[in-house]
Each structure stands twice: as structure tokens, then as C-alpha cells.
User: Which sequence fits this backbone?
């Protein structure tokens, strides 16, 4: 079962796994957005079942998941992929905006995991793959709320990995860098992102020019199929590693944070992000 399967990484994973013969449940908040995938599944004779599910709602998950499980009996692999970015200097982001960010990026993966876990525990096996981000390893200016949510997902996943491993359930986290998906278009700008005191790039020049831009991908952005292949590798592996950094940009950022003096690392990162 893959959440956020209507676009980007989720869609790529649904296609790849179904093409390999897995029975895929593709979940989206809107069944309409899964129309093309349903058609493709019919054309290519792929075992993809599409479901509409509001992962942000306890009530919806409590109502829909038991019905789904009654039908499919058990979910062997859950890919908590759905997520979005919230952009703006953290001091300008409202508590409600941050709450919504955590609802989707943190609480929904936990909610879904809890829903599928009884079946996994009963059969003594299962895999939960959370799609985090390189920003779950490094904080970045203007992406503080998103980074906070992905850091939280890291901590949650790491704890669960150790809690569930002895019970036969494998937990892994994927940490992509920048990939060409709907992510930048779907990114939410904090309502007050451009107001109040702004981060400065030094010498008094505000970073204001950055707001509302950056909806395009640079040459570094990768093909989401690459992340899908990492997800497949985790599913196929008998003893998958916990963390999976994907993309040269992500690997470089994680390595730089590890080896560079912190002050220097933060100087370069803030210059790059606020230039
Ligand atoms: N692309 C990147 O560069 C990148 C980098 C690092 C991490 N990631 C992570 O990768 C995952 C997939 O993102 P993507 O890159 O494939 O972006 P995407 O194309 O925008 O897809 C994200 C999916 O998440 C779901 N989603 C978005 N906002 C949501 C909300 N408020 N509530 C519930 N579901 C929501 C949507 O699913 P439905 O509309 O179908 O419900 C959408 O299909 C996310 O967790 C993201 O944080 C992406």
C-alpha cells in the first residue's frame, strides 16, 4: 500500500512494483487523481487497486482501513510516501500551518502504520517504509517546518525500527534529495512568509527575492523512478538497512554535515539557501 500515489515518487513506486507483479494498493485523497493510473493498470493488466483515503483524518482512516483490510486480508508493505513542503522562515509560520504539516508528514504515517500493524504482527512479518527527506538530516533556512516534520519522522521511524524488528516487522526510511515530482509545485508558502523580519544573506540584503520563486527544478533533480527502485530494494531485501539516502545532492549534504566544522557548514548552507 502506497500513500500519495497520484504523483511523483508514489506514482513511480506504484508503477514499478505493479510492473514487477506486486499487488499494489494506490491511495490518494482523491480517487479522481488516480484515474490515469487506473487506466494504465487496466491497459497493462497490472494489479493496482486504487483507494480514496484522507490520511489526515483519524475518523476516515478508522472507517476505511478496516473495510479495506477485510477485503485484502493483510497489507504486507506500507509505503508512507504522502507529504508536502511548507516554506517560509520558521518565525513567520503559524502554529496552524505547522500543525497541518505535522498532520500529513508525521501523524499520518503513524496513523497508517497503526492501522496495518495488527495484521503484520499476526503474520509475524511486514515492512513499513517511510519516505523522509534529506531535510530530516539537515535543517535548512526557509524550510524549518518541513525539516522539523521530517526530523520527527526520522526519530519516530528509528524508534519503531527497534521496537518492531524483534516482532518481524522491518522499518526503513528513505531520504531523497531533490527529485522531479509535483513537490515544488505543491509546496505551500506560509501565509506570512514574506512579511515581518526576514532572514538576511549578510551585508543587509534580505532574502525576500527567494519567496515565490524556485518552482523549477535544477539540473541536479533526479528521476523519481530512482527512489522507487530504492523502495523496491528495501522490499526485496531480507535484512534491509534502516536509512537510505537517495541522490548525489542528498549524499553530499549528509557527508558535508558529518565532516565539516559545524560553523563552516552552516555558513555555506545559509549562503546557498538565502543567496
Ligand atoms: N521530490 C522531492 O524532491 C522530495 C525530496 C525529499 C523528500 N520528498 C518526499 O517524498 C514524498 C513524495 O513527494 P513527491 O516528491 O512525490 O511530491 P508530489 O508529487 O507532490 O507527491 C506528494 C503526494 O503526497 C500527497 N500529499 C500532498 N499533500 C498532502 C496533504 N496535505 N495531505 C495528504 N497527502 C498529501 C499527494 O497525494 P494525493 O494528492 O494523491 O493524496 C501527492 O501525491 C513526500 O513525503 C516528500 O516530502 C520529496
Assistant:
Amino acid at each position: 500500500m502506497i500513500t500519495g500515489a497520484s504523483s511523483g515518487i508514489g506514482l513511480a513506486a506504484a508503477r514499478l512494483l505493479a510492473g514487477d507483479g506486486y499487488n499494489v494498493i494506490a491511495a490518494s485523497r482523491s480517487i479522481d487523481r488516480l484515474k490515469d493510473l487506473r487506466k494504465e493498470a487496466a491497459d497493462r493488466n497490472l494489479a493496482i487497486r486504487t483507494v480514496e483515503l484522507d490520511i489526515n483524518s483519524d475518523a476516515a482512516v478508522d472507517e476505511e482501513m478496516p473495510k479495506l483490510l477485510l477485503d485484502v486480508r493483510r497489507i504486507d508493505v506500507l509505503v508512507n510516501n504522502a507529504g508536502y513542503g511548507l516554506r517560509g522562515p520558521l518565525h513567520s509560520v503559524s502554529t496552524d500551518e505547522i500543525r497541518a504539516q505535522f498532520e500529513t508528514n508525521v501523524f499520518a504515517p503513524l496513523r497508517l502504520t497503526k492501522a496495518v500493524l495488527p495484521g503484520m504482527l499476526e503474520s509475524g512479518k511486514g515492512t513499513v517504509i517511510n519516505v523522509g527527506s534529506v531535510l530530516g538530516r539537515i535543517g535548512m533556512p526557509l524550510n524549518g517546518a518541513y525539516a522539523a516534520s521530517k526530523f520527527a519522522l526520522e526519530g519516530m521511524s528509528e524508534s519503531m525500527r527497534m521496537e518492531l524488528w524483534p516482532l518481524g516487522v522491518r522499518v526503513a526510511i528513505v531520504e531523497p534529495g531533490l527529485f522531479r515530482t509535483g513537490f515544488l509545485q505543491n509546496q505551500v508558502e506560509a501565509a506570512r512568509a514574506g512579511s515581518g523580519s526576514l532572514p538576511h544573506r549578510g551585508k543587509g540584503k534580505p532574502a525576500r527575492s527567494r519567496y515565490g520563486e524556485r518552482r523549477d527544478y535544477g539540473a541536479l533533480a533526479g528521476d523519481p523512478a530512482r527512489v522507487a527502485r530504492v523502495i523496491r530494494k528495501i522490499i526485496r531485501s531480507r535484512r534491509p538497512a534502516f536509512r537510505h539516502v537517495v541522490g548525489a545532492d542528498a549524499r553530499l549534504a549528509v557527508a558535508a554535515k558529518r565532516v565539516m566544522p559545524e560553523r563552516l557548514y552552516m555558513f555555506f548552507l545559509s549562503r546557498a539557501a538565502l543567496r
Remarks:
- The beta strands are 24-28, 48-52, 77-80, 86-87, 126-131, 169-176, 188-189, 243-246.
- DSSP finds nine helices and eight strands in the chain.
